[in-house]
């Protein structure tokens, strides 16, 4: 990381300036009522976001047809994936059926959107603890690599299409919050969320030769003992009630590489984040400084859709749509 090029690293007074520079707009809140039948839970959200979801899935359909011009890939998605739905645990099966019916989109395409995370995501998560034992948690959701580069405005196409679909969600039961999350409309699993007063959770894909692609292939070929990670994470947020913490380090940084291995030399977001955390020091860690660190290039990059900040103790959950102004790395 070139700290001379990006002197904004870990300065709390820069948050307002960053919001002006890179702020795309507010992320709306929606309530997901878990007391409703699964088929009906997403009705309000999907009614609002159906046009944007159709645009994004139409783009994916066109991209798939470029890779497989015969159209057979989308034929398999539309015709074969629904037949595999019985292997997806409830209530997610009924929720996806409800979304498909509301949007008029093929159920297979809704299913494919819900396994997207296994393929095309790159993220950064930071958990830090101040001197008083207070934990703060932040993440950049980076998504859409290899899915089309727009040479006119130097952006990843899917990254931009996902921004109008970004939402904050308040999952409630008996009119009380069970957990809160930041997600994409149409995606029923969860990758970023917290239970107020208990714990926060973010998920980053692990780059591995036997990871997402192989797991999806094995699932299609009949190995059904695995669980889709977004569904598993949502189950944790919905049902878990405690978290044991070991306080031997004051921060943890996770990107997409095993911590005991060196990251890919063109994608060293981890070192940049660690440099900023060390410059900040434990005495000055807070949500604004976490935001600042997540705004430092290349932690902030062309694939960044949104930044989420979480303070479990104070019940704070904030999500910001992001832009990465040039010069900015492509991933």
Q: Can you tell me about this structure?
A:
- The protein is of the alpha+beta class and 331 residues long.
- Helices cover 34% and strands 23% of the residues.
- It has eleven helices and 13 strands.
- A six-stranded antiparallel sheet has the order 1-13-12-4-3-11. It has a five-stranded mixed sheet with strand order 2-7-8-9-10, with helices on one face. A two-stranded antiparallel ribbon has the order 5-6.
- A hairpin with a 5-residue loop joins β3 and β4.
- α2 packs across α4, α3 crosses α5 and α4 crosses α5.
**Segments where pLDDT lies below 50 for 5+ residues?**
1-7
The end-to-end distance, rounded to whole angstroms, is 14 Å
Structure class: alpha+beta
What value does the Rg take, in angstroms? Answer: 20 Å
**What is the residue-averaged pLDDT?**
81
Note the beta-strand portion. 15-25%
Summary of the model, kept short:
Belongs to the acid ceramidase family. It is built from eleven helices and 13 strands.
Lay out the secondary structure.
Layout: H1 15-22, E1 23-26, E2 29-33, H2 43-67, H3 72-80, H4 92-103, H5 107-114, H6 117-120, E3 121-129, E4 135-143, E5 149-150, E6 155-156, H7 157-162, E7 166-173, E8 176-184, E9 192-195, E10 199-202, H8 212-220, H9 229-239, E11 251-254, H10 269-280, H11 287-294, E12 304-311, E13 316-322
Parallel strand pairs: 2-7
Antiparallel strand pairs: 1-13, 3-4, 3-11, 4-12, 5-6, 7-8, 8-9, 9-10, 12-13
Helix pairs in contact: 2-4, 3-5, 4-5, 10-11
Catalytic activity: an N-acylsphing-4-enine + H2O = sphing-4-enine + a fatty acid
Pfam families: CBAH, NAAA-beta
Enzyme class: hydrolase
């Amino acid at each position: 990381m070139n700290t001379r090029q990006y002197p904004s690293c870990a300065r709390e007074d820069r948050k307002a300036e960053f919001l002006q520079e890179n702020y795309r707009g507010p992320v709306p809140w929606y309530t997901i009522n878990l007391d409703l039948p699964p088929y009906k839970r997403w009705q309000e959200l999907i009614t609002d976001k159906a046009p944007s979801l159709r645009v994004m899935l139409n783009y994916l359909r066109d991209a798939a047809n470029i890779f497989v011009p015969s159209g057979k890939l989308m034929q398999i998605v539309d015709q074969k994936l629904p037949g595999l739905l019985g292997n997806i645990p409830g209530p997610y099966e009924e929720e996806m059926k409800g979304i498909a019916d509301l949007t008029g989109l093929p159920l297979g395409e809704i299913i494919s959107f819900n396994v997207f995370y296994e393929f095309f995501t790159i993220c950064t998560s930071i958990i830090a603890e101040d001197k008083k034992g207070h934990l703060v948690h932040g993440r950049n959701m980076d998504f859409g690599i290899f899915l089309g580069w727009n040479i006119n405005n130097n952006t990843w196409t899917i990254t931009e299409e996902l921004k109008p679909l970004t939402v904050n969600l308040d999952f409630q039961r008996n009119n009380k919050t069970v957990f809160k999350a930041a997600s994409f409309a149409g995606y029923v699993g969860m990758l970023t969320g917290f239970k107020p007063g208990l714990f926060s959770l973010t998920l980053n894909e692990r780059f591995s030769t036997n990871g997402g692609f192989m797991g999806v292939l094995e699932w299609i070929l009949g190995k059904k003992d695995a669980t889709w990670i977004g569904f598993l994470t949502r189950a944790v947020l919905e049902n878990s009630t405690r978290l044991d913490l070991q306080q031997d380090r004051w921060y943890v940084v996770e990107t997409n590489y095993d911590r005991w291995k060196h990251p890919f030399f063109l994608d060293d977001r981890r070192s940049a984040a660690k440099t900023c955390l060390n410059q900040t020091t434990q005495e000055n860690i807070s949500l604004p400084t976490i935001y600042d660190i997540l705004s430092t290039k290349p932690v902030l990059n062309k694939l960044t859709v949104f930044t989420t900040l979480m303070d479990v103790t104070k019940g704070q959950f904030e999500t910001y749509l992001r832009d990465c102004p040039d010069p900015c790395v492509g991933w």
